[in-house]
């Protein structure tokens, strides 16, 4: 019945696996949630083996599904996956994890980042486009493991991201075979030369990270091996099916929603709400200290982008549904919340949520999550809209930075799970004074992975023409000028609260967290 391609997205909240045919129709899909652990205040860590086990189980379900539809799992021509760009684990000689998987939600390296930035070195911005260390950078997690993990110091041989960890295990590879693609490499934040797509010996020396711990750098579509006999038996797919090197989730999501040219913007509405703009290289105005933006290399050659973020953007939505509304077993409750919130006027009658559930950043590093201005008249609908607007206020500040650097951002594409919410999209259009476009394929990363798998298999000659066949506009949202004016006034009030009025209160609240 023709060739098939398998892709997976190893995200923060779940693993998603899907099989597409050569016409880019989804034949089978499956997802399984992941588990986040919070062993200490500010720490967030996961089990890398859960990523692998979830992937295997989802592949097994997909194999069953395609058989039921008359397809043969042996027709899968290649396997490709993507994962979180800011997160690593340490592995031993057998390729097994000897540390937890720590990602961008974790703040244990905050003091280390401050110490690095106090040195005022310019090599970071010059070689990576990122002028400052950030506590969510894998480079700092590696430093932490080297200082604090006896297991890694005694048995560790490499650091790897979560998608390569899964791909290595699917192919039965050892620690010495560890790899990373040239886009996800830039997720390290520091330690590499972004334009050369190589590790930087000088930066690694300054960071105190031995080059021997760094994985080899590959192209996303490079084939690293074949599906092992053990994984073939466990998943139902054919032994020897080519396994690709993988890519970063943000890079794949951008391509999957049609961001191919410099100046185009996309909101990757996942766990970490990320507001990305494609460029043709480092833009000095955006790579200055204090901009709050991160610079990365894309999956394709000569592609680059900046992104601003709210670390707990999408996670704040899940937190509210699961922990406040107590609907952790009802994924459809998001729809009910937005239906209630649609009856609430823009600005929530002054109710404000601060989404800093894992702490603030920069000058607001002591900020914490909280609701402000609630009264007895307010309900879940008001609180939900205030959570959505809170992420939007941070997006407004990021948008102002882009526009000040000459990026007009009159049109914004939304992708991933949050893009399905029409109210959320309209709020973004109003707050950002920009048209918001949603495409039919909301989870663009996985279908992009499958296109890359086809490239690796030699079945397509170029990624862009193939992806353009998958992109169909689903909806468009135009800004309401009156709401835009209101949000601009409210943003100034919110900035005054967070940056000035509440700094002492945040400091006191931080001290209260330390009491026994």
Automatic annotation (TrEMBL):
Gene Ontology molecular function: any one: kinase activity
Every Carbohydrate kinase FGGY N-terminal domain range: 4-256
Domain Carbohydrate kinase FGGY C-terminal: 269-447
Keywords, alphabetical: Kinase, Transferase
Matching Gene3D superfamilies: 3.30.420.40
Highest taxon of the lineage: Bacteria
SUPFAM superfamilies listed in its UniProt record: Actin-like ATPase domain
Sequence similarity: Belongs to the FGGY kinase family.
Record's protein name: Carbohydrate kinase
Organism: Mesosutterella porci
């Amino acid at each position: 019945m023709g060739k098939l391609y398998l892709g997976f997205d190893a995200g923060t909240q779940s693993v998603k696996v899907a099989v597409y045919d050569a016409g880019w129709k989804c034949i089978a899909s499956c997802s399984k949630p992941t588990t986040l652990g919070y062993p200490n205040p500010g720490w967030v860590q996961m089990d890398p083996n859960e990523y692998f086990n979830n992937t295997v189980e989802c592949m097994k379900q997909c194999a069953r599904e395609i058989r039921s539809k008359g397809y043969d799992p042996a027709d899968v021509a290649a396997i490709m996956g993507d994962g979180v760009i800011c997160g690593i684990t340490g592995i031993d000689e057998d390729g097994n994890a000897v540390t937890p998987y720590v990602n961008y939600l974790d703040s244990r390296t905050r003091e280390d980042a401050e110490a690095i930035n106090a040195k005022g070195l310019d090599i970071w911005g010059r070689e990576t486009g990122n002028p400052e260390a950030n506590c969510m950078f894998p480079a700092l997690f590696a430093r932490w493991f080297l200082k604090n993990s006896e297991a890694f110091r005694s048995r560790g041989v490499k650091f790897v991201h979560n998608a390569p960890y899964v791909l290595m295990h699917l192919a039965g590879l050892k620690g010495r075979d560890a790899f990373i693609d040239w886009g996800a490499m830039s997720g390290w934040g520091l330690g590499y030369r972004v334009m050369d797509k190589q590790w930087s010996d000088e930066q690694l020396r300054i960071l105190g990270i031995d080059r021997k711990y760094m994985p080899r750098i590959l192209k996303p579509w490079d084939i690293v091996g074949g599906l092992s006999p053990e994984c073939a038996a466990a998943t139902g797919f054919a032994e020897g099916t080519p396994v690709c090197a993988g890519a970063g989730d943000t890079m794949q999501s951008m391509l999957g929603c049609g961001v191919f040219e410099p100046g185009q913007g996309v909101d990757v509405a996942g766990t970490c709400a990320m507001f990305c703009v494609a460029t043709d290289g480092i833009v000095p105005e955006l790579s200055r200290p204090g901009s709050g933006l991160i610079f990365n290399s894309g999956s394709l050659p000569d592609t680059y982008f900046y992104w601003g973020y709210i670390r707990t953007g999408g996670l704040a939505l899940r937190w509210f549904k699961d922990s406040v509304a107590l609907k952790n077993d009802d994924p459809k409750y998001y729809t009910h919340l937005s239906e209630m919130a649609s009856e609430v006027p823009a600005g929530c009658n002054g109710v404000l949520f601060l989404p800093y559930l894992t702490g603030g950043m920069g000058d607001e590093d002591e900020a914490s999550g909280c609701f402000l201005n609630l009264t007895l008249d307010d309900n879940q609908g008001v609180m939900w809209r205030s959570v959505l607007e809170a992420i939007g206020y941070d997006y407004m500040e990021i948008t102002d930075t882009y526009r000040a650097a000459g990026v007009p951002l009159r049109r914004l594409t939304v992708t991933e799970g949050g893009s399905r919410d029409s109210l959320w999209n309209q709020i973004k259009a109003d707050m950002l004074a920009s048209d918001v476009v949603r495409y039919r394929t909301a989870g663009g990363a996985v279908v992009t992975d499958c296109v890359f798998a086809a490239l690796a298999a030699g079945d397509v000659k170029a990624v862009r023409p193939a992806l353009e066949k998958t992109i169909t506009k689903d909806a468009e949202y135009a800004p309401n000028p009156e709401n835009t004016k209101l949000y601009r006034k409210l943003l100034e009030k919110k900035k005054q609260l967070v940056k000035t009025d509440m700094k002492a209160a945040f400091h006191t609240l931080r001290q209260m967290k330390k009491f026994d």
